[in-house]
TrEMBL record:
Keyword DNA-binding tagged: yes
Organism: Brevibacterium jeotgali
Secretion signal span: none
DNA-binding region: 39-58
InterPro entries xref list: Homeodomain-like_sf (IPR009057), HTH-type_TetR-like_transc_reg (IPR050109), HTH_TetR (IPR001647), KstR2_TetR_C (IPR041490), Tet_transcr_reg_TetR-rel_C_sf (IPR036271)
Tree of life domain: Bacteria
Name used for this protein in its record: Transcriptional regulator, TetR family
Length: 213
């Protein structure tokens, strides 16, 4: 799905990734071998292009990594703001939608998410700063919803920023271990983690009862 196509109706939809063939080949190689263990020749072979063909599209291996990570972060961001906009109620609904979005992204786009999480160390200074800014933007969205929930009396945590950070870390780590043939489907895992996340922020159900994780 193109990030331009994400809306309040489609943020759940995960069709086949529409990465450029070079980026798709690179993603496969980075996931298997890591950035530093991957060569341009390996990317070319995975992309079914010549080495010259790869360089026609991207000037360096680093530029390819930046493109993979940037597209992953933008996809997650567009889905997150669409999920937030789709919430029909107050902070609880917004929080549940955003946590669901995080979980679905890190299971449905787990290779992209894994590389975006683990290869920050391989980015050059300017690219690293840009990536961290995008990561922090995502974190601030969760924090703002939790803070709104505390202000509205929907959440009782005394440490909204710490609780938000714990929730995001819990969600992003899923890409490291989730497998689609495991015990839980993506949607089942999202539902379970929403309960845990609501417990972390001192959440309440819409009827006013506390949520048990």
């Amino acid at each position: 799905m193109s990030t331009d196509a994400v809306s309040a109706d489609t943020w759940h939809d995960y069709a086949r990734s529409q990465l450029h063939p070079v980026l798709e080949g690179a993603l496969h190689c980075f996931t298997l071998h890591g950035y530093h263990g991957t060569t341009i020749r390996m990317i070319a072979a995975a992309s079914r292009l010549s080495v010259a063909g790869v360089y026609h599209h991207y000037p360096s291996k680093h530029a390819i990594l930046v493109a993979v990570m940037s597209q992953a972060m933008e996809d997650l961001w567009q889905r997150s703001i669409a999920a937030d906009a789709a919430a029909q109620g107050g902070p609880v609904d917004r929080f549940v939608n955003i946590v669901t979005c995080l979980l679905e992204f890190h299971t449905q786009r787990r290779d992209e998410a894994f590389i975006a999480l683990t290869e920050i160390r391989s980015l050059e200074a300017n690219a690293r700063a840009d990536h961290i800014a995008k990561r922090d933007r995502q974190q601030r969205l969760v924090e703002s919803v939790v803070e709104d929930g505390v202000a509205a009396g929907a959440f009782t945590t005394e440490h909204p920023r710490d609780a938000s950070r714990a929730v995001v870390t819990m969600c992003t780590s899923v890409s490291d271990w989730y497998r689609p043939d495991g015990a839980l489907s993506s949607s089942e895992l999202a539902a379970r983690y929403c309960g845990i996340a609501l417990g972390a922020v001192g959440g309440h159900t819409q009827t006013g009862g506390p949520v048990s994780a």
